Amino acid sequence: MNAPVKPEHLARPAHTATLYQLADEYMEGLAILADADVPPEVVFDTLEGMQGELVDKVDAVMAYAANLQALATVRKAEAERLAKSAKSLESKVEGLHTYVQIILARTGIKLPLVTGRFTLNLAKNPPSTDVVDEGKLPSLYKTETVTLSGSPGLCEQVRMALEQSSDTFGILARAAIDSKVTVDKKALLTDLKTVAAANEAKQPGDARDAIPGARLQPTSYRLTVK
Predict the structure, then answer these.
(1) Domain boundaries, the chain
(2) Matching Pfam families, A to Z (predicted)?
């Protein structure tokens, strides 16, 4: 049996070549064999050997990729665990700060308080909105989002009916509708602060009615540590 033919510059251990190099050499070998005057069985044996090297290298690369994926999965799980741990620690820190703040208020110790390593003081929390009754809130602060679920054909029928101002009751009866109301708390807070400032100034004609269903949260303070 004739020995496989392989150009000398292609004859080297597969482990010394990269996957790209092996692929290039494989394609180059195909071109050389196409022009070479050798028996078909020699061509077959040569291609089989060259392909084997390429497959082995692909296998090695994919094994390396699998190891990296396994490592990424482990690290992702570890990152989630660390994130939960950090959140738990932050919650404990907040609880300790609140505890010290209560004790300082109860004992009447004046702030700022300078200890051996820290300076403690109080800072006013940013104003926030308290929606006490969403139903009474003016519509200009509310946005309603309606989600329609059903078959694509049914959703298309509803869309066309709405565009044509047709009666959609019969169509909607066959669809699942989910409605969600979102409150624009940023705009609400701005207007509540304006109302509070005007009423506090007590200037004639500037006093404004409270916004139904909402109010400013009472002023609160948090402990700061430096």
Answers:
(1) 14-109, 124-164+176-225
(2) Sipho_Gp157
